[in-house]
Design brief:
heterodimer; A: alpha/beta; six-stranded mixed β-sheet; two-stranded parallel sheet; 8 strands; globular; B: alpha+beta; Heat Shock Protein 90; 2 domains; five-stranded mixed β-sheet
Amino acid sequence: MEDYRENKKIKFRFGNDHILYTDCFPNTIMTLEDGKESTRVSAEMVSNIPRPLFCDLTNVVKMTQDCRRHFAGPEHARTFSKCALIITSPISKIIGNFFLGLNKPLKPTRLFTDKEEALTWLKEDSADQDVAKSIMMAV
Amino acid sequence: MIGRMAALDFSQVITTSDENDMIDAIALGLNMLGEELNSNVVERSKLDTVNRKLEKFAYTTAHDLKSPLNAISGLINLIEFSNESGQAEEVKEYIGLLKATTEKMKGLVHGILEYSKTDADHIEKNELDLNIVLKEVIEVDQLTSVADIKIVGALPTVVFNRSALEQVIRNLLNNAVKHATEEICQIVIRSRDKGDCYQLSVTDNGPGIAPQYHEKIFELFHTGEHDAIADSHGIGLATVKNILESFGERVWVESTIGKGATFYFTLRKRS
């Protein structure tokens, strides 16, 4: 069953495909506080099981240094298995590249301008993981 | 902005608009780059300070360990010579001196270890009743057998690390005892509420400290005339300063020759 939540800045959706989708409201400035809150909500929605993360940065106009460091750190890494960052605006492209290049997130993270490509990549290993889980449960 | 960056000034920030276009993206990129470079410069500056401290520490440690090591080497040669020439009494004497020198060295190494521990980043802080901490230090070190210690008024509860605070109190009290010249070493401990912190004082009836040494006595391995008599390595007060300053506190001394010394230090109040 799908789960949806939102706060003043971020929208969260945990889909039936077991992917966590996040998106921001227009002209969002992300601070460390927002980052920590995002981690908290994400952890709750995925029941503390790391899931693929589809994160649309298009509407983010600024992300503080502390916030980027937090998202690249171990606390946030516990909430996702891999992350596709959607960067379709000029500013989000800069933020995405800084995040990947300078902050070096702990889990596999890729930048995409095409949402379908992002979803394909996210579903790649998770399909294998779901099969493995079913086999384990059957045994 | 580029010009300022070249001069390692990363304070300037370019204003961006709401257009979210390429110009805004470039401006944001430059601002983010400035931030990252500034962080690196700050980290580098901290590292340079730590490296300079380490170099000085390594030099003074090696320098001060050399002296007892030379003494040990000399004594062994004397023992060897006396043993060969059958001078048993002298051998006994030299062995006694050798033991004393190795104890001194152990003390020095122990002091260095204590000093090194004070730079640890992950130090836990708790609320501590100073009356209890002080009483425990006095009992464990059996200080009442060597000094008359008086506490004026009740001491407060503070926020600090227990072992670090014990070390501070221990070193200050032992410093007073070591340098005592009167028949009875008298120590008076007081506390004053200074609004945002407490100011503790430890006053002794020792020989006093000349003004030109008021800063130097807190330097690592500094030993003055009285330290040689007191068998001091010059680590205790340096450790006190290191501990207190690493917690953002202060320590200083007020003293004149012949009129004892009062060591003051601050401790944060509980939140």
